[in-house]
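Board notes, transcribed. Complex of a protein with 4AD.
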Amino acid sequence: MAEWIRIKDAAQHAGKSVTLKGWLYNRTDKGKLKFLQVRDGSGVIQTVLSKKDVPDEVWEAAEKLTQESSVEVTGNLRADPRAPGGHELSVTDLVVVNYAQDGYPIQLKEHGVGFLMEHRHLWIRTPRQAAILRIRATIIKSIRDWLDNNGFTLVDNPIITPAAVEGTTTLFEVDYFGESAFLSQSGQLYNEANIFALGPVYCFGPTFRAEKSKTRRHLTEFWMVEPEIPFCTLEDLMEIEEKFVSYIVERVIDKHREDLIHLVERDISSLEKVAPPFPRISYEDAALKLREMYNAESDLAKRELLFLEEGDDFGAPHETALSKLYEKPLFVYHYPTAVKAFYMETVEGAPHLSRSVDLLAPEGYGEVVGGGQRATSVELLEQRLDEHGLHHDPYQWYLDLRRYGSVPHSGFGLGVERTVAWICGLPHVRETGAFPRMLEKIYP
Ligand code: 4AD
């Protein structure tokens, strides 16, 4: 009996008789030949059915095959450089597991995004979408591998929490037995406790933000990996981040060159430049550059987007403009204290600036990582809580961390979806996960 193989492993079985199990993606009929494109979740392959090589009932079954019918196809696997994917199967037998109903909603023609999102449960079957999901899985594995191999311990932090981490405007509130609680915006504060028990740690899971605007970078539920490191300054943190991000990109290129080039249609030349060291620029120097760009811009609409008030946080257009100036990811550090979260350490001698750092991906993708050095003074933290309108009570445990053995420490959060969007070259985060959650979008 022929061995059942996955399409991705075709190269190792060239010249043999094998069975593939999957679904009919597309077909072309040419007289006594049928070209059936079969996909199995690991790739797509062209299979060729010749009337003279198969029993009549197999030919008849193939005649009736509809798009997305499930099949088991057996045949001889040949290397063929002209075939998409480099291999072709000459069919000797075909078993139909299920004839898909006529009228599969996703046709090979272009559909609008709204329609595709309504049919996300089917859209994910298309080879490009499946390739993106495979790449996402590799990104997640690379994240874990790098951290596990570099002395970090994984800790799972709670999803139901009593306090805000990243501001109160994006909290999802839940009723916790009559008390108000929130879905986690970030596991960072708990990680700051975990480092005193374990040394470098990371948490990795879904995080939630009630983002009320529709943008191409914001989801309401996204996955974030958050490493936290004791005895670590902002400068040390940047070195860790650049090694970590470079490793992830390198692993994806290594494993998914074919997916990236042929299915996702990503020009990988810019990804191949991602290696330490990454350029670094202070917020103040970046703001100067943006003002220069603003003054030099003759197109009024574009100029308006680059407008920046003194001390403003950078918006997406600013990040896009800045990141386009560099070939590699760019660190922007020392943002104004006023635009960052309450827990940031301040710059010595310049308390209006924070020891924060964002990493902006090149080609205009913008922020993929946010982090910084954490404040160690109880007094400063209490003052910041007041400035942010946060009650002290839910943070007493957090202040204890500064009372008992406080050390300089730093950490960051990398958003998986934005990283997938950048690495795959996607203009919007909605295609970076199987079932994305966005403003007013919860079906399917
Ligand atoms: O910059 P952020 O808000 O930082 C934190 O949450 C820190 N507590 C992390 C830390 O230091 N431990 O978010 C970090 C990253 C962003 O750079 C972005 O990649 C992603 O999380 N992110 C989002 N991704 C998709 N949709 C959203 N609404 C996101 N908000 C943040």
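DSSP finds twelve helices and 19 strands in the chain. The chain has a mean pLDDT of 96.
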